[in-house]
Write a structure and sequence with these properties.
D-Maltodextrin-Binding Protein, domain 2; 12 helices; elongated; binds glutamic acid
């Protein structure tokens, strides 16, 4: 080695030891939070609430970017392939991390191996809503209407392989009825068509339907959780008419696999602070979204448990996706 090389190496290592590492300076620019559904849906709503608080804590903007399509797969895949530096993260759901991978024959990404879990955020009830022009006031009426008019009615969802799609297919198989499935790029555009009566039935996530239920522009027939939703105690559960019926959604933050643990920890802390924010707590209460929060390891276990839980239920509906 000549003297110039030795000198260069020495200066290089001195600079490296003086410069702070990427993890130490994180974040020093805006973070993109990919919402894998269109604007106006529940994932978007939860993401915007959490992003606003995280921006304050982190001192950098957390910018929501909607990448809808393929039941959440497009957005999730985009994050799975992003640089593992913490600047591109995902608002994942039971769709991107359990249902879609269970239904798809060819999986674009691995929900476990391709992500670094950050934090579980909320558990979200789904709700069976109809356009008020539909002649059905409760789940029993709807079952009768569908039985008397086979092939006449369709239901909207936020996309193939989402909990809203599963909610519809599970309802069909457990209640013995038929309805055609119409997938959209998210609950937002699906709701627009439901409000316009282009489609008359939808399983939605409760947060995005809440205001429409309250104003009467949509009629809620049942929530999909085992228990009634605390903020809508008058809406029965679907289970009260179709015993054993249960679906729900959750939202959680994920980074690409390989993201440094210090950066994941920083994002986890910011998520935890967001979940303790009185403004976030009060909005989540309105939606009956249950704040859970978690460590990265707890989210990793949650994803594995959810994949196991839904596997036989997905099989029972017979849904597979190409
Ligand atoms: N149905 C999707 C889910 O719960 C979210 C729909 C949306 O936010 O548009 O995973």
């Amino acid at each position: 080695m000549n003297r110039r090389v030795i000198l260069g190496l020495t200066i290089g290592s001195v600079i490296a030891s003086v410069l702070p590492s990427a993890a130490e300076t994180f974040p020093n620019r805006a973070i993109t939070l990919v919402v894998p559904f269109a604007a106006g849906g529940s994932t978007d709503l939860v993401a915007r609430l959490v992003a606003a608080s995280m921006s304050t804590t982190l001192g950098q903007q957390v910018i929501v970017e909607n990448v809808g399509g393929a039941g959440g797969n497009l957005g999730a895949d985009r994050v799975a392939r992003a640089d593992p530096d913490g600047y591109t993260i995902l608002m994942g759901t039971v769709a991107t991390h359990a249902l879609n991978p269970l239904m798809l024959k060819a999986k674009p990404y691995d929900p476990v191996a391709d992500f670094a879990p950050i934090s579980l955020l909320v558990l979200v009830p789904n709700v069976l809503v109809v356009n008020p022009q539909l002649p059905a006031n409760n789940v029993k009426d709807l079952i009768q209407l569908l039985k008397e008019n086979p092939g006449k009615y369709s239901y909207a969802s936020s996309g193939n392989g989402t909990p809203l799609h599963l909610s519809g297919e599970l309802f069909k198989s457990m209640a013995g009825v038929s309805m055609e499935h119409i997938p959209y790029k998210g609950a937002g555009p699906a709701l627009n068509d439901l409000l316009g009566n282009q489609v008359s039935i939808m399983f939605d996530n409760l947060p995005s339907s809440s205001s429409h239920i309250k104003s009467g522009t949509l009629r809620a027939l049942g929530v999909t959780t085992k228990d009634r939703a605390p903020s809508f105690p008058d809406i029965p559960t679907v289970d009260e008419t179709v015993p054993g019926y249960e679906t729900y959604t959750w939202n959680a933050l994920f980074a690409p696999a390989g993201t440094p643990t210090e950066i994941v920890a920083r994002l986890n802390e910011a998520a935890k602070t967001a979940l303790a924010d009185p403004g976030v707590i009060s909005r989540m209460k309105d939606f009956s979204a249950k704040i859970v929060g978690s460590t990265p390891d707890e989210l990793a276990s949650h994803v594995k448990a959810e994949i196991q839980k839904w596997e036989p239920i997905v099989k029972s509906t017979g849904v597979t996706l190409d």
